Amino acid sequence: MLLSVWLTLFFAAWAISLSPGPGAVASMAAGLRYGMWPGSALVIGLIGGYSVQFIISIIGVAAMIKTSMLLFTVIKWVGVTYLVYLGVKQYRSPVSMVRVDVSKMPASTAGKLFLQGFLVDITNPKAAIFLLAVIPQFVDTSKPLLIQYVIIWFTLCAVDLVIMLGYAALAANLVKFLKNPHTTAKINKIFGLCFILAALTMAFMSV
């Protein structure tokens, strides 16, 4: 994988992970209730669920490559369009606040927290759709695929791990910050633009 391609992937990974979603909310809830290190078991569970979703997605990508390169190319452009759509949707999302409910957290055992984190990501159908849109943008079918998949997986998961641990560690301050609806509106606009920029960068690479 070319360094320029990897840097685009790295940028996209940060835009993906920093955008508040179910994983971020779960991480903040765990951090608020248990603290960073006990809550990190939930974060590891999130990464486990994310990895399973990744495997499911690359099976779909591999099937497309085997079936038709034309189909694979079409999916790449559909993926770019989908990312632009997500960016516009997030940019225009209504003013709201992030709600963190610690009452739904399980008893403080690493196993239960891991399982909850795993289930949060594995039961999120949007994650698989999103990965199916992202992965083809960084795959060069003229080169060995396995090492490319490993690089993409490691980059996405490493960035997500850092961000989710950050959410858990700074939970109290982040919750106060994100409870301001106008603040979350500004965040939505910033990450909406990040999604669009990432999509356009991918489109440029795909030409």
Automatic annotation (TrEMBL):
GO terms for molecular function: homoserine transmembrane transporter activity. It comes from the Bacteria. InterPro entries: LeuE-type. Keywords: Cell membrane, Membrane, Transmembrane, Transmembrane helix. It is found in: Cell membrane. PANTHER family: ARGININE EXPORTER PROTEIN ARGO (PTHR30086), HOMOSERINE_HOMOSERINE LACTONE EFFLUX PROTEIN (PTHR30086:SF14). Belongs to the Rht family. This is Threonine transporter RhtB.
